[in-house]
Amino acid sequence: MSQAVLAHHATKGNVEAELASQGSGEDAGCGCAYPGYVGDDVVDRSNQIIGRLQATAARLPELVGRLGALPRYLTARVAGERVRIVHGDPESLAGWRLALEAMEPGDPQVRRQVGWRGQPTTPTELLDWFGRAEVSVFASTHTGLPYAQAIADGRRRRLVINNGAAGLPAFASTTYGVMTRLSSDPRPPPDSLYGTAVGALRCDALPVRFDHHRWQQRFLAQWPPGSPGHRSYFGRITGGTHLRLVQAARGGVQLTAPSQQP
Questions:
Q1: Considering the chain, what percentage of its residues have pLDDT values greater than 90?
Q2: Rounded Cα gap, residues 230 and 236, in angstroms
Q3: Helix (H) or strand (E) holding 158
Q4: Closest to 21 (Cα-Cα) out of 94, 85, 96
């Protein structure tokens, strides 16, 4: 899988950064930078998972070195618009300021379900980030729940789009992940879940469909019941999340596949 990723333009996430830093004297951990509302049990399991990954990584030093050398972000120009691709948020590799629960206006249901508390991310802060980066779109991941939110900037439109996770079910009672598509083709793709245009740039969330039964079998072979991976992820693999598709289209972003709403 890592070799496939490295064949493309890729960025470094917190896991790659942590694996590359082993042996530096830093405390073992996933580098997830979990906010305070995430329970200690989740943090402990994540650290156990990264410990196992570090044991595997120790056998592949050349590959780990290549992963660690990846950039922390990329800037691309698509259809005349500049896009900043980040793992966490514009200020931190593993930041949570672009998490759905942090975004204003807040979704009370989402915030209640994740137990959110903390500093919300306001449109003023977003526009400051857009201005300093000189981009029209922030495309991120890391924080688990997918969404896209348009932000008005005078006569211009800006967008934050977060795919949540490509390899884990994204919405309630679903089995697909989500990926972000950025294209110069102005037409919504047939499988778009939600999307919008930013100038001539078309931005869409697409489902990542896979063999769900086979994925469960492969997961259980690595993380059987009782293991930290199983306790953290198997419930989401089998039942999806609490998020409804309609909650992911924010600020004027349009649902393009309403028939797929759970």
A1: 81
A2: 10
A3: strand 156-162
A4: 94
Confidence class for position 24, pLDDT limits 50, 70, 90: very low
Handedness of CA 83, 150, 145, 45 (dihedral sign): positive
Percent helix, strand and coil across the chain, each to the nearest 5 = 35, 20, 45
Residue with tokens 């679903």: 174
Structure tokens at 68: 């660690």
**How far is it, in rounded angstroms, from Cα 99 to Cα 121?**
9
What letter does residue 105 receive in the DSSP assignment? S
Q: What is the pLDDT of residues 72-119, one digit of tens each?
A: 999 999 999 999 999 999 999 999 999 999 999 999 999 999 999 999
Query: Which residue type, as a one-letter code, is found at position 237?
Result: I
Distances (CA, A) of 181 to 186, 205, 213, 234: 12, 6, 26, 27
Q: Report the pLDDT value the prediction gives residue 5, as an integer from 0 to 100.
A: 75
Residue 259, class by beta-carbon neighbours within 10 Å (0-12 exposed, 13-18 middle, 19+ buried)?
A: exposed
Separation CA 209–CA 111 (nearest Å): 27
Q: Is the pLDDT of residue 258 over 70?
A: no
* C-alpha–C-alpha distance, residues 133 and 94, integer Å: 18
CA distance 74 to 119: 26
Taken in order 252, 187, 262, 171, the sign of the CA dihedral is negative
3-class DSSP state of 152: strand
Q: Is 153's pLDDT higher than 70?
A: yes
